[in-house]
Q: What sequence folds into this?
């Protein structure tokens, strides 16, 4: 079992930057790829970014590519999502997830955090 806890979400202005963290505990975090997903009100949960267990491979959804950066620190069992040039349409609950492979499908992830709210005002 892996337990995940997101933090860092808050209300920001359009154009601001924000860094989300995902703290892992339980089984070895290094064994898993990590993904970030988000869910806006009345919308499906969607893929944002993913990173391999080593950090050498990353993958981004088109709406965030070039603005968001996913990273991880395996020594600290923590993952990060750096979000720059935030837009109102980035408003959502952001979730981190752990799974065996770098994938964009939420069905490929075995463990999920509870989410952290990011609100971007215009």
A:
């Amino acid at each position: 079992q892996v337990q995940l806890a997101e933090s860092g979400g808050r209300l920001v202005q359009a154009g601001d930057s924000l860094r989300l963290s995902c703290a892992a505990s339980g089984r070895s975090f290094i064994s898993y790829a990590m993904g970030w997903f988000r869910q806006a009100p009345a919308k499906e949960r969607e893929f944002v970014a993913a990173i391999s267990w080593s950090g050498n491979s990353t993958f981004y959804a088109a709406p965030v590519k070039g603005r968001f950066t996913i990273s991880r620190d395996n020594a600290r069992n923590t993952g990060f999502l750096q979000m720059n040039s935030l837009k109102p349409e980035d408003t959502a609950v952001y979730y981190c997830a752990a799974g065996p492979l770098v994938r964009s499908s939420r069905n490929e992830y075995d463990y999920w955090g509870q989410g952290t709210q990011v609100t971007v005002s215009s």
